[in-house]
Amino acid sequence: MDRGPVEPWMKVDYMRLVLRPSAQQAAQLGRFLEEQRDPSSPDYQHWLTPEEFGDRFGVNENDLGKIASWLQAEGFIVEQVARARNWIAFSGTSAQVSVAFRTEMRRYSVDGETHFANALEPSIPAALADVVESVRGLDDFHPKPPRLKKSRPDYTSSTGAHYLAPDDLAVIYDIAPLYQAGYNGTGQKLVIPGQTDIKLTDIRTFRSQFGLPASDPQLVLYGKDPGVSSDDQMEANLDLEWSGAVARNATIVYVYSKDVFESLQYAIDQNLGTVMSMSYGGCETGTASYRAVAQQANAQGITWMNSSGDSGAAGCDSQGASSATHGPKVTFPANIPEVTGVGGTAFAETSTAVWGASGAHLGSATSYIPEKVWNDTPMGLGIEAGGGGASTVFTKPWWQSGPGVPNDNARDVPDVVLAASGDHDGYLIYAQGGFLVVGGTSASSPSFAGIVALLNQYVVAKGIQSKPGLGNINPNLYSLARTTTQVFHDITAGDNIVPCKSGTAGCTSGSLGYKAGPGYDLASGLGSVDAYNLVTKWAAAPAGTGTTMTLTASSAGIPQSGATQLTATVTAVSGSNRPTGTVAFTVGSQSLGSAALTAGGTGTAASASLTGNGTS
Fold first, then answer.
1. What does the angle CA 396 – CA 474 – CA 242 come to, to the nearest 5 degrees?
2. Nearest-CA neighbor of 97 among 19, 195, 14?
3. For the segment 160-208, what is each residue's pLDDT rounded down to a tens digit?
4. CA dihedral defined by 109, 115, 119, 121, rounded to 10 degrees?
5. What is the β-pairing status of strands 371-373 and 282-283?
6. Do 405 and 522 contact (CB within 8 A), yes or no?
7. Cβ neighbours of 320 (radius 10 Å)
8. CA–CA dist 288, 336 (Å, integer)
9. What is the pTM (predicted TM-score) of this model?
10. Which end of the chain lies in a sparser environment, N or C, as judged by fewer CB atoms within 10 Å?
11. Cα gap 248→199, rounded to integer Å
């Protein structure tokens, strides 16, 4: 509900102009990311600093100066210029925002809360339109943390329920042998973005209870202090406690601001760690521009894990909703090809022998426990299941192939899974004055990030790499799944099917979603991991690269209306096989679709055609 205009003197802090690379720079970045994976390239594993990224792929100093001068002329205070020269943070008043961006700042009542936001899409001066992609931070709507279903642990439960302590995860996913070999995260930095203050005493109590080395997270504040939000604090505690529970000697860096996505982008721009996990997300619609953020992270050697969501196959519907109304969707940012989407499982014990007496630090698991896809929706508390499905924004990356991978020409999610059920069996965390039992992919993502931190330590210690940094690990994950054994636990039971409202797209017989099956599937990805085998077999994955090709076409021949056929022809070098794969047709960051290469003409030529509408 519209509550009227805000006061003209109201301060709006740390807004951001997101700057657009040129089409040539975008194409060069795609090629560079592939060269970083190519052992024959001089740029192999050459991770960039933010400044080096800016020199190659950021706006030039002249344009940056023009933008800063325009902001100052409009009365804004320039707070920070990104080291990579791809965004500028600034602050000002509501009146200045209204005049500079030709919009109006108003208050709105939404779900019982009062917020402010711009009433009209901001307008960018024509002189800056080529280099300014978007304006962010003109409102105080921030991502909502996942709804963590929490309960107090009943340590004398006779229902067969157990609670996960760090030593349990170490046994179940075969992390313990890595600890015994000295791989515990020493020397690694793992970043958790957030949007609240935390209580260090919570983290200390958790680590003390489970016999973990005393180690406070490194706190990094960006912008104005956001204060304490109880729901966000619960999420932060879960992420900080369990990433550190797996990577026990790593430095956990907590970056916080008023908005978790600002924290994330700041962490990347400051190069604060080589591994990062975030548990926030939402509907993937309109999020394609964030791919550039993930690509920058990868170019700097950062591996970004993100929870795949807790709404099953209905990623655009709220967790806890009674039924889905938006059709089958995946969540952002797990849908981005340069991000590793982490989904969820629940344990499906076939024998009580997998649990024993509690040890000194409350661990009682004795071995790997069979898993099924996490789906607590049937318990009657609304949609609660591991996120997964096919993206409607991103086409399938070249590396996403193998047994079970759908031929859907879409980026599929999740990539991997770990335990996520809060009911069977939930993670213990310390928050709100005591121990709680929680679940969700908010737990599986930071736990997997901890494993990736151990992997970084291993590849350096073994001389596989000279310094930490793995960038996008997805190509290696899928390569390992195709060529090795005993790295993944193939999840073949369960589903992420949820109820849906009649008439909703993809709603069949009152439900939508996907079942687990052999190999890859849209409910459990490649499966959960045997951490020891993942780490020690990492270098055995055959290196592979994709080819990024940019064809620049004039718009002069494209009519303003009616159907237009776009065709790309690819010819291999003499003596090579005919090219295969798909061609993605894009305009800037907007995807027009993609088409498979098929035989065309003679020799080694192949072509791909797409029919589109000139009005779009």
1. 130
2. 14
3. 678 999 999 999 999 999 999 999 999 999 999 999 999 999 999 999 9
4. -130
5. unpaired
6. no
7. 14
8. 8
9. 0.90
10. N
11. 19
